[in-house]
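Hi Y.,

Following your request, here is the sequence exactly as I used it, all 551 residues.
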Amino acid sequence: MQAEHSEDMSPYAEFAAAARKFSSSPFFCLTSQAASSYGVEPCELTYAEAFDRVSELQVAYRNRSYGLGHRVGLLLQNRPEFFFHFLALNGLGASVLPIDAALPVNDIAYQVGHSDVCVLICLPGVAEHVAEAVELSGSQTPVVTTDRFRKLPAANTPSRAQAASPATEAALVYTSGTTGQPKGCMLSNEYFVGISQWYLDQGGYCALEPGRERLITPLPVNHMNSLACSTMVMIMTGGCIVQLDRFHPSTWWQSVRESQATIVHYLGVMPAMLLNLPESSDDNIGEQIKFGFGAGVDGRHHLAFEQRFGFPLIEGWSMTETGAGAAISACDDPRHVGTRCFGKAPATLEYRLVDESGADVPEGEPGELLVRTVGKRPRQNFFSGYYKDEAATAEAWADGWFHTGDVVRIDAEGSFYFVDRRKNVIRRSGENIAALEVEASLLQQATVDSCAVAPVPDEIRGEEVMACIVLAPGTDPTAATAENVVCSTMDTLVYFKAPGYVAFVERLPMTGSQKIQRGEVKKLCVELLESGDCFDLREQKRRRKPATRSA
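Below is the corresponding structure, written out as C-alpha cells. Let me know if you'd prefer a different format.
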C-alpha cells in the first residue's frame, strides 16, 4: 500500500494529514486495565481531539522558544500524553529522548548526562526520582512535571533558523546496553516515515485497511517498535493506537477484546506466557485479530499458539539501527512456523553472511548478517549514527556494510532463520554453539525457572559452555540436579552443545527492559568458574551411541 506522504516527511506532518482525513476516527484507546494502572478513567480520543491537544502543547513549546536543535526528555510512560508531546515537538523540529522512569537512577542519569537534553518532562509521581538522576548526572537539566507544565522554562539556547528536513533528528533512542553502556541511536524523520511505509508495503498476512485497524501493543515507547513502528503505521493509515502500560498476561485478552484490536504486537516471551494460562472456550479470537507481529517466539510455542488462539504470529527482523533499511518479515507463505524463520529479504535489501574473518560463508551455513540498502544511498532508512560516538558508528558500518551482530542462515529458497547474536555464539572445538539454542533446551525442563548461557575459557577446546540457572521453587541446587539438567539437554541437543559447567544463581543480570545483560553474564560465569562455585560436568558430555535393534 503506497501512502500519500506529506512533502515535509515527518511524524507530525503525517499526523496532521491523518487528522484532516480521519478527523472523527479513533486515534488513541486507553483500556480499562491501563487506565486503572495510571489512576485515570479509560477513554478513546479521535484524531481531531488529539490534534487539538497536540496543537495546545505546540503553542506552549513555541512560546518558550523550543525548536530545531533542541532535544527534550520525556518520562511519561506509555500514556497518551507521551504521544501528544512527541508530535508537538516534532512539528517544531525538536527531538525527543523517551526515558523509562522505572529505570534505576544510575541508568537515567547516564542518559540525561550523555544526551544533552535541555529539559525533562515527567509525571509528578516520579519527579524526585528524576531529580536525583539529574543531580547524579552532574547536569543542570530542569525537570518539569506535567501538572506544572505552564511553568516550562525557556529553552537555554536559541533554536536553529532553518526548517526541519527528512534528515532532522526526531528521536534519540538508547539501546538496551546488554554488553556495555547503552548507545544513543539518532533516528531521523525519514527513519520514522520509512518504517511505516515498509510496514504498509508488506501485504500478505499483514495487509492493512485504512481507517479500520486498531493495533494493541504493550511494548514501551522508549523502544523503536512502539515509538516508530506501531505508532507511525497507525497514523499513516488512520488507525487507532491501543497502547497498554505494559504486558499483563492475566488481563491481556480482556484488553484485546475491550479495545476491539485487529492487530497485536508481541515479543517472544508473550506467547509462552499466554499459553500457560488456563484454556478457555473463548481462546480462539481469530475473527477479531488478523495477525500478530513481532519477533523471537519460541519454536515450540509458535504453532501451538496459532492453533489455540486462531491467528498467525508473523515473525520479523530489524534493529533500532537498521529501521526499514534492513527489515524483513515472514508476511507471506511459506512462513516455516516453529523454525525461527523471519521471511525473505525484500528487493531493496542487499546482504551478506560472513564468518569471523569477514569472508562469505558457504551456502546454507550460518554467518553474521551484513546489510545495506540497494542503490546510491546504502544507509537510507537506517539510523543516523550513534550520538557522540563516531568511532562506534564507523565500526558498525565497516567496509560499507552495517554489521548486525546477528548470526543467521538462509535456506535454498531464500528464507532467513535466526540463530543467535554473534557475541552469544560459543566456539568449542571448532563448533559454533548458539547460546539461545542451549537456553531453549534448558527452559524445557521443569526444574529450570530461567537461565543464561555464556562461554568460559577451556585450555583444550578454546571455550566451554557454561549455564547460569535460576531453579524453579522447591528444587535443590545439588550436584545431582546439575547432572540431571545436563543429561536432559542431550535429549534435544547434540552432546557438545550441552553445558560443561552449571552454576545455580538466585537471579540473572538484567537490563531495565528485562533483557539478559550478556556482558555481565560472561563476567559472572568466569568469576564462578574461577571461584569454583559451579559444577564441572564436562565428563557427562559424551557422544551417545546410536540405538541398536535386538535380534
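Confidence is low (pLDDT under 50) at residues 545-551.

Thanks again,
Q.
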